[in-house]
Structures are given as C-alpha cells and as structure tokens.
Amino acid sequence: MIMSRFMSLPRSFTALALVFIVACDDNPVDPPGGTAFLQVLGKGAVPERYTGEVWVRGNTAYTTTWGFRSEFGNAIKIWDISGGAAPVLVNTVIVPGVGTLGDIQTSDDGSLLIVATEPSPGSIMIYDLADPRNPQLLTRHATASTQPGVHTAEVQRVNGRLYAFLSIDPPARLVIVDITDPRAPVEVLSAPMGQPFLHDVFVRDGILFTALWDGGVSIWDIGGAGSGSVSAPRLISNLRTEGGQVHNVWWYHAPGGEKRYAFIGEEGPSSGLASASGDIHVVDVSNMSAPVEVAFFRVPGAGTHNFSMDETRGILYAAFYNGGVRAIDVTGDLSSCTPAERSFDGRCDLRLMGRELATGLFAEAPVYVWGVHFAGDKVYASDMLNGLWALREFLPLD
Which domains, from first to last, does the chain contain? Predict the structure, then answer.
C-alpha cells in the first residue's frame, strides 16, 4: 500500500532522504474528458513533510509521513474530520529513530493503531487507541525478521485472531505476526517471496493475496479454502499480470455476494514527484486455481497507487499520483465489451467502456496522491505534496 521503487531507486535511507524536484508541466496527464468531478471539501496542509498513507476511523483520520522534505518522515498526523470539510490537525506523534513511516491502520475494533517503519531497524509500532486522538505506545515489534525495514503492514483478523502481515524490504519476505495480545506479539511465519519486492498483501475470508512485483500476484489459502493456515499458507495459484510491477490488491465483494474480481495495481516508472505510470488490472478470480486477467484501466501520463472501495455501490476509488483520484464503476460484467472497447490483446478497456465516473483533484495540480480512504459519504486522499484532502463521494448528476 506504499510506493517502493520511487524513481527506480532502491528502498534505502539514502533514496528516502532525497529531495525531489516537481516539474508537472513536463508530463501532462490525459484530461478526464466527460467525467464528473469529486467536490473538494477542504485540505489539511502538511508543508514540512511528504504525506504518505491515510486511514480513517469514525471522526478521526491518521496519516503517515515519508522520506525527507524539510523534516524526516517520522511523524504520524492525527486529524479531526468531524466538521465534514477541511481536516483539522489535532496531534502529531513523532516516532523516534526512524527515517520514514509506511502503512497505518487501525484494528477492526478500533482499539489499536499499527504503523510500519523503515529503514533499519524495521518495525511495527502498536499503539493503544483508548483515546483515538492521543495514541499510547504499547509495543515496538522489531526482530531479525523485520530487517532491513517493514514496508507495508496489513492488519486483519483470521479465525478470531488478529494478525499483522508485513512486507519486508529486500531481501524480500513475508512476515506474519500474531498481535492478538498487542503487548506480546508472536511471529508465526517468515517466508522469502517477491521479485524483487513483496510490496503489499490483501487478506479477506481466510484468503491471502500477495503482490510480488514482477513475480505477479499469488493467492494463498490461510484458513478459508481448505488445508492452509496463517502459519502454513497453501499456494492456490499465481498470475503474472500484463506489465508486471504488481503493487497492491483489492478483492471486491459485491453486494449480491459475488466475489469475482480482484483489482491489481501496477506501479510503473515515475519521474520525481512529477509523473507516474501504471494501470489497474482486473483479474477474474471466480476460479482461484486459474485466475484470468480480463480488463484494465489506464490514465495516460499518470499511474495508480492505492485503492479504496464503496463496495455497496460498486465504485473503486484509486489514487493516481499526479492524476489525482479516479472513481471507477466496477459493477456487473467487466469482461464483456464491444470490439471498439477491447484492446489488441483481448482485454476490455474500462475507460473506453465509459467506466470512469469522476475525477478528483485534477484541477488542484500539482498533486501527487498516494492513498485514498472511502468513509461514509467522503473520500479522503493523502497527497505527498499538499497533505490530506477531503472530497465528497461520487454522486450522479441529476
């Protein structure tokens, strides 16, 4: 859920400490055409650091910071979003001894906040959220397995127990930590995987998706499809999507119960904080033993990063770096399209199918949107250059 190969540099402290030059006019983004615009409600500015990931729970939003601007990215920003417009900064928590922060997520019950740190000593910070605006550190989990850095951390419950799924910087591997007792985390798995990165994971219904960069996406049973478990995942299948560079995954559960599609983010080459590349790939996983790529979504001149979904309405919200935020209709059959809407390789082109519903922050350039989080009737977007934006969800025109 985090940029790993920024400017094609290794994920190291030296790379993270670089200061990037913005030159957006050199790489124009394809305009949104006839789509609507997501209304901008307000911005919480972060001028001194690059903003990283975003997570929202209730009336509070949490963002991390990344790399080096005029300050190192060692700050957790905590925002009051109860006003429904511009996020209001209410607290900043400094994580000592780290160069940059990565993923941030609350547990499903809202009692814990988990933050990934890198480079060495890589760790996850586990905070108590009895007071959601004033996190209290319970544990910093750092072992030989979390070196040289924890790039992403997905927190999910499997069979009643709470786990953190950690993607470790090269030499890449997956580390799974049982954090059911947050004061005493227990490592249950450490397994090499990724070519050359294990960038992200997605966990749902006892199924684990791992984003293996040029190794494609692998699907594992960890308790939801037979004999696999969290401590001994069973490989179901692997698919190498077009273009490789598999960055992130979202397995969509439609309101009617269909679980047919997984959306795969490709993080292609970028140029500073000015332009990016990479498509959204649509994979039919109705037969998990034989997944098939059936469609894609592309924004010329920009590249996708992280996703969030309004699953009730079937809308995928995607961060597109310098291309802002895109709202995409993913309802129905995404593998059926006319010849004019189909690419030369047989995949359906969602943009040609008219699936792009709305664009956010396109008019606010320059932006470099890292992450999005759909919550209630709003979409919150973390922008590396500007901070945290609040947008109104997509509503169809009358």
Answer: 6-392 (2.130.10.10)
